[in-house]
Task: inverse folding
């Protein structure tokens, strides 16, 4: 993390005063240096403060610096008189050539003796370093990466420029921290140019980071539906979506396509999904062709920078060529007063049968009977009374399923020639249909329980 080393312009680095002869009449009160720690090639502005305890004359100040560092001026002579209690400030410049920790001897010569002062200057070899807060980068999705900078020296006006396709292109670092976003399509090394000042010294360095990459989890799509359905029945299709990405996704659209049936809704929308969020949506489907019905789901969505993604999935439902609304327990009675036709209408499907209307025609005679709505596995009874002038009749059953589709099924009915006779036609067929319906319901329950 970027060091906070104070707010004053000149900072005290170190001041270790050796034994001062009793005859000396001056002391070094402070040595300041800005910046306090240097890099090779840096220059620091220094200030030596000398305080007189009584009137005296300063003959010279000499800096004895080892190789690798340079003090200018190294010798200052003929400073002259210094009154008691007054302070003399001597500016100097430190130039660092090589890294290391340097001890500089400062000798102050006065008319009554000399003072020796030791000053330590640190020249750091280690440069500032950019550290990514996110150690693993995800391919094929937008990564928001925060970083911080660690440094052994005082930094100011820090600017980071990613040398790859990142946003923003120039990052002004505040409090040693910054962030950028980018969309990697393949593993690559990340190159950064770091610009900064150490005091009045400008630096520009390049850093290469080789992060670990992983594939995007993308979007997980799960579809569940009955594997078996009756013609024109309505079955539920559950669409489960989980965002396995590390970022939010937007404008999720689920499009359902089939050329063998009708949906309650052909497109489902989700405005936004957070990372790791799951949603389950339900749509109703009514097959209108027998044998096999194929359903295709197309899912599209966008990421935070409006890159669009598309995925598809397909399922199949086996469709039995039988109606979910059937006629059962049919009875036909004929006597001197006319013909009585009665029976039951059963819903052996998985969806509701709504607005059921029965219509019977026999010759010029026509009558209707309204049953209303039958939920799955329910039935209702009906009865018609006709004249006895006919020997055939047709019973038509009309209803609406849960997706609004209108269905019609007709049954021919034979009128007996003699008096009272009961006819229970199609009972074997009804039994088969009922068994199939039970199988379909059991299959649905098993699929949903998985």
Result:
């Amino acid at each position: 993390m970027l060091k906070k080393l104070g707010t004053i312009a000149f900072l005290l680095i170190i001041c270790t005063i050796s034994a001062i002869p009793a005859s000396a009449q001056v002391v070094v009160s402070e040595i300041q240096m800005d910046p306090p720690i240097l890099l090779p090639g840096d220059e620091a502005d220094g200030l030596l403060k000398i305080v007189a305890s009584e009137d005296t004359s300063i003959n010279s100040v000499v800096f004895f610096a080892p190789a690798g560092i340079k003090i200018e001026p190294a010798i200052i002579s003929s400073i002259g008189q210094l009154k008691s209690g007054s302070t003399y400030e001597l500016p100097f410049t430190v130039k660092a050539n090589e890294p290391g920790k340097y001890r500089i001897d400062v000798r102050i010569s006065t008319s009554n003796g000399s003072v020796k002062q030791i000053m330590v200057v640190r020249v750091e070899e280690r440069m500032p370093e950019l550290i990514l807060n996110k150690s693993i980068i995800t391919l094929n999705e937008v990564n928001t990466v925060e970083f911080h900078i660690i440094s052994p020296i005082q930094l100011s006006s820090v600017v980071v420029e990613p040398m790859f396709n990142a946003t923003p292109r120039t990052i002004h670092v505040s409090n040693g921290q910054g962030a950028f976003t980018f969309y990697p399509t393949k593993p690559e090394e990340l190159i950064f140019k770091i610009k900064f000042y150490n005091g009045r010294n400008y630096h520009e360095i390049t850093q290469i980071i080789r992060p670990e990459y992983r594939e995007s989890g993308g979007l997980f799509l799960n579809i569940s539906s009955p594997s078996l359905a009756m013609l024109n029945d309505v079955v539920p299709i559950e669409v489960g979506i989980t965002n396995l990405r590390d970022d939010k996704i937007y404008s999720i659209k689920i499009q359902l396509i089939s050329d063998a049936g009708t949906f309650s809704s052909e497109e489902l929308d989700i405005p936004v999904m957070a990372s790791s969020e799951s949603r389950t949506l339900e749509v109703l489907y009514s097959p209108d062709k027998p044998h096999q019905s194929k359903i295709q789901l197309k899912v599209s969505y966008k990421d935070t920078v409006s890159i669009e993604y598309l995925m598809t999935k397909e399922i199949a439902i086996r469709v039995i060529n039988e109606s979910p609304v059937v006629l059962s327990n049919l009875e036909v009675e004929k006597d001197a007063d006319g013909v009585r036709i009665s029976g039951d209408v059963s819903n052996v499907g998985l969806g509701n049968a709504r607005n059921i209307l029965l219509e019977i025609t026999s010759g010029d005679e026509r009558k209707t009977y309204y049953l209303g709505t039958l939920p799955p596995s329910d039935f209702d009874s009906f009865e018609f009374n006709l004249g006895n002038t006919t020997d055939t009749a047709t019973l038509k059953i009309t209803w609406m399923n849960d997706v609004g589709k209108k269905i019609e099924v007709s049954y021919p009915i034979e009128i007996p020639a003699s008096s009272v006779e009961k006819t229970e036609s199609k009972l074997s067929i009804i039994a088969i249909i009922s068994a199939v319906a039970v199988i379909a319901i059991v299959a649905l329950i098993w699929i949903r329980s998985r």
Observations:
- Helices lie at 427-449.
- The chain is about 5% helix and 60% strand.
- Confidence is low (pLDDT under 50) at residues 1-23, 420-434, 436-450.
- The longest strand covers residues 308-320.
